[in-house]
Write a structure and sequence with these properties.
It is built from 15 helices and 14 strands. It has 388 residues and is an alpha/beta fold.
Length: 388
């Protein structure tokens, strides 16, 4: 006889097909959990998506439309959730980030106090930026943290923030992960060489890659500026789209390095491992970062990483100089310092032994601590199984 599955209601402002790290995490986790039934309320961001559909292991409901839909999400999602609760009798709600989704979860908690409220922190923006954005609702915003029965944070940095915001429930650090199997590319080298040639990398040239949304916090402009401090045989491949693309293209023209920078745009997840494998160094000199799945993916693919020591990055990136007591998994550069980036690049190229050590240690760290299967098991046992 089959037991009745517990039902979890998820609040997430964005969801497929509009995805970032948080949305990927939700799908990766729920696809692997078969003992629970998941429902999710999100915004119909472009107004073109179905009001209800099944995606993976989640029944998705869309409310509102576009930017106004995001602002009204706490109310519209709460009303939809209340209606769904009468039919499904949810065992818990789960808000993805302390934003409008968190406010929706808070309203539901106020109306149905006996239903456990789980909050997951995935924020990548700086704390001052988040505070400024939520300023009109700041007292209510802080109540999200105080009302959550359990909080999971993808990094120690966000865990500390939760406690500073007055969290009363248990706070656990459970990171995002990677599907390590996708990045275990066994290739003769032919496809990689063909890809390098296709994107304009000549024999003897070095390829730097970043996989980033083109937004201010990811500091792609600093990588472009660093090319002026590197030999002409270094090329830069940008996989990503975003609001800063036009200004970044303009910067390459001003520096007269258009022939060294390729804006590829969106790269599908199934093609990304090969692009990473074809690259020599991964760089993202973030100005703020919750954790950063892109770093973990590069590490899983065997690409050495250069990053800043901000937010959740120090949880997994250990620089041999900054962390002499730990196994080296990458190099740190300074925030907004192109020369520091170039220095790290030269070090990885000039010291093959250090490069190989970093690649080996980073890959082992990701496989051991950041595989989605292990992350899902932790979410299941430490969070959902402990709900009343």
């Amino acid at each position: 006889m089959n037991s009745i599955k517990k039902k979890i209601l998820i609040f997430s402002v964005a969801y497929h097909p509009f995805i970032g790290g948080a949305e990927v995490a939700v799908k990766e986790i729920t696809d692997r959990i078969k003992d629970y039934e998941f429902h999710l309320i999100t915004v119909n961001l472009d107004g073109k998506q179905k009001k209800q559909e099944r995606i993976g292991n989640i029944e998705v409901y869309r409310v509102g439309k576009g930017k106004i839909g995001k602002y009204l999400f706490p109310i519209t999602a709460f009303l939809k959730a209340s209606s769904l609760h009468k039919k499904n009798n949810f065992s818990a709600t789960w808000s993805i980030m302390a934003n409008y989704a968190g406010l929706a979860g808070l309203l539901f908690k106020k109306r149905f106090p006996k239903v456990p409220f789980v909050l997951t922190l995935q924020e990548g923006d700086s704390m001052p930026h988040i505070k400024k954005r939520m300023l009109p609702l700041y007292p209510l915003f802080k109540s999200i943290f105080k009302s959550a029965d359990k909080i999971t944070a993808i990094s120690n940095y966000l865990s500390t923030w939760a406690k500073e915001m007055g969290a009363r429930g248990e706070v656990s650090v459970i990171p995002n992960g990677v599907d390590a199997e996708k990045f275990k590319i066994q290739d003769s080298g032919v496809k990689i060489q063909e890809l390098r040639k296709e994107i304009g990398v000549k024999e003897g040239e070095k390829l730097i890659i970043t996989t980033s949304r083109l937004v201010k916090k990811n500091a792609v402009d600093q990588i472009i500026l660093s090319l002026k401090h590197l030999p002409d045989n270094f090329r830069f491949f940008i996989a990503g789209i975003g609001e800063e693309e036009e200004s970044l293209c303009k910067l390459t023209k001003e520096l007269n390095i258009e022939d060294r920078v390729k804006f590829e745009g969106f790269v599908s997840p199934d093609k990304l491992p090969l692009y990473l494998k074809a690259s020599d160094i991964f760089i993202r000199p973030s100005r703020s970062e919750g954790l950063g799945n892109s770093f973990l993916e590069a590490m899983a693919a065997g690409v050495p990483v250069i990053a800043t020591s901000v937010g959740g990055i120090p949880d997994f990136l250990f620089d041999p100089e900054a962390n002499p007591d730990k196994l080296s998994t990458g190099l740190f550069c300074e925030v907004d310092n192109p020369e520091s980036i170039a220095k790290g690049v030269k070090r990885l190229i000039d010291d093959p032994k250090l490069r190989e050590t970093i690649i080996k240690n980073a890959k082992e760290n990701v496989l051991r601590n950041y595989d989605w299967q292990g992350v899902t098991q932790r979410i299941t046992h430490e969070v959902f199984d402990g709900l009343n």
